[in-house]
Amino acid sequence: MKMNHDKFIEAMTNSFEDNRVSTYAVAEAIVREPVAIQERLITLFMHYLYQIKPSVVMPEHMLDLSNFAQASWEQYFELLGISETSDIGQHGDLLELLSDPEGAESGWTNIKIEKEYLPHNYVDESIAWNKESVEQFFRELSTKDLRAMFEKKDIQFNEF
Amino acid sequence: MFTTFAAAEILKHRRAVQESFIVLAISHLQELSRLYKSGKCPARLKKLGKFAFDYERTVLEGAGFARQIDFKAQERVMEILDGTEKKNTPIRVITTVEYQLDKSEIELDLEEDGISLEDDGGNRIREIATEVFEYLLEEEMQSIRIVGL
Lengths: 160, 149
Known about the structure:
The complex is a heterodimer.
Chain A: H1 5-17, H2 23-30, H3 35-51, H4 63-77, H5 93-97, E1 108-117, H6 131-151, E2 156-159
Antiparallel strand pairs in A: 1-2
Chain B: H1 2-11, H2 15-37, H3 46-60, H4 71-81, E1 92-102, H5 103-112, H6 117-120, H7 123-138, E2 143-147
Antiparallel strand pairs in B: 1-2
């Protein structure tokens, strides 16, 4: 289904307003989409960050986001040679500006310890779960398990 | 221009909506970076994967931007843990401590000690990994993500 630009933004912001979106699930789904669509989302994010960079009219409650936006531009986008949003004004501009890592010699090693849990195995109706206790539960559980894996040298190394 | 217009439209919304957009965009970049770091990134996504990886280590790590567990994901896990979940979906919680090392930095470090990368046989990487993981685990700095929603 084709959706025009106004409708796209309206649908996205409405779903955020209603708290209907799981950003995790959407992010995972977007990675499976064509590269052009993913480039568009990244470009939109960069344009948005450009617009919230600190200015005299920036309200105080937005200052932390504004500073984050400035850091993104100064510490990264500008170093890529993108100084204005007009540099990424058209679809495909960003991809064209990025160098192709294909064929480049592998330069990095990723070192990782990972542990997966099925929450169905930890049902406990005696606890009044809330978002903090859910996160705390998995943080404590995984700290213990990841430590045990680390001591057993159960570490994954891969070059990329 | 659509993108400028769209960004301005998002800016008109209240802060919570803008935060959701930022979290969505960053989650997408973190997913791309994860794919790139796995060494199994499809060729079509390599440019964006590298872009996301560099953004993560240059900006997100510096800003202390940990992977966000969004409200919807927490809600689903809460329903499972308290036994009220109606759907039977295979939700998984994945916890990870990880670190990336630049091979050229290791080479320089070894060169100072007069050791070649081949002779070292990966010992230096393991030494650094041990030191880094001691710190990350001590500080409970693992990422927690929820998949299969």
